[in-house]
Write a structure and sequence with these properties.
Elements: H1 2-34, H2 42-45, E1 53-57, E2 60-63, H3 64-85, H4 93-110, H5 120-136, E3 146-151, E4 154-159, H6 168-190, H7 192-200, H8 207-249, H9 260-294, H10 298-309
Antiparallel strand pairs: 1-2, 3-4
Length: 319
């Protein structure tokens, strides 16, 4: 009876939460569209695969995607500071909100292998970094507020902040970290010679054929990790820009068109979380595969040694 009452009481709150989310997404769409009405649609439809440079600090060129990555890092640092400042045994709402994704990813990684403690921080950190960077790109003003640069007779709109994942350098950097870590696990458990033997494969006379295949397979993980994340984030950026341009053009004809991008913003919230999860779980899977290959023959050897020391383990029990 009490359970039914609790469910009935929570139902209105769920409806209110759903309405609040729709309103927030609608307001975000309105603000983003209004921010670029003055550009006559040109800024919204501007597509650049490469990140646009903003200014130079010595030999370092700062791009708008770098600004997005730095802002995502600052948000994570602030959340960590809030979490560590006054941790409570019975967490409040803010602490529970911060703990939930960490505990969720940690539980997934914990079931991957017996050495999960060695890489749980990396997998969790990658998930949070990509998630915050993807969701940060959906805030009003990101990708829609900037300056117009003149290159001869051509005018190019350059936003101050852009999605970090829309820059291949960002995704490739994360992929290189992931690649180095799972290769390091393979070398650590196999040794350098053992890792090369894994690449050569069995039987040895097939090495001239199998070694290039295995090597390309290893390197393809680096390409797939970086290109998958980059392609999805960049495609989402183009989709949102197109929807903002269409709704901006229809503002005086159909005011409700302002809320059309809210649907796509909601989808991008989901896709941003999915892409962060996919990248993190692929990293975990590659590391787990390296660990499993490294332990391939050691388990049987350990069981054999244990049997030698305890021969009674093979004897049937007698009354």
């Amino acid at each position: 009876m009490a359970e039914g009452t609790s469910s009935a009481a929570s139902a209105p709150w769920r409806r209110v939460s759903f309405i609040v989310v729709l309103v927030v997404l609608g307001v975000a769409a309105v603000v983003s569209a209004i921010a670029n009405i003055g550009h006559e649609g040109e800024g919204l439809l501007h597509v650049s695969i490469a990140a646009e440079p903003l200014f130079d600090i010595g030999p370092l060129t700062v791009t708008n995607s770098m600004v997005g990555a730095v802002l995502a890092s600052l948000i994570l640092l602030v959340l960590a500071w809030v979490f560590l400042r006054r941790p409570e045994i019975v967490p409040g709402r803010v602490q529970s909100l911060i703990e939930w994704p960490i505990e969720w990813i940690g539980a997934i990684v914990q079931g991957s292998s017996s050495r999960w403690k060695g890489y749980v921080a990396l997998v969790t950190g990658m998930f949070l970094m990509i998630l915050v960077a993807n969701w940060l790109s959906l805030l009003p003003g990101v990708g829609t507020i900037g300056i117009v640069e003149h290159h001869g007779e051509e005018e190019v709109f350059v936003p101050f902040v852009r999605a970090a994942g829309a820059d291949l350098n960002f995704t490739l950097g994360l992929a290189i970290i992931s690649f180095v870590v799972f290769v390091w696990w393979g070398v650590r458990l196999h040794g350098p010679g053992g890792y090369l033997k894994e690449l050569v494969g069995e039987p040895r006379y097939m090495a001239p054929l199998m070694f290039p295949i295995h090597l390309i397979s290893e390197l393809s993980r680096l390409v797939s990790l970086s290109m998958r994340l980059f392609g999805n984030v960049f495609a989402g950026e183009v989709l949102l820009g197109t929807m903002f341009a269409l709704t901006t053009a229809a503002v005086f004809v159909l005011p409700l068109a302002f809320f059309v991008p809210a649907v796509f913003l909601g989808l991008e919230l989901l896709f941003g979380a999915v892409q962060a999860l996919v990248f993190a779980l692929l990293t975990m899977t590659y590391i787990t595969m390296a660990i499993a290959e490294g332990q391939g023959g050691h388990g049987d050897e350990h069981e054999g040694n244990a049997s030698d020391h305890h021969p009674e383990a093979h004897e049937p029990a007698t009354a």
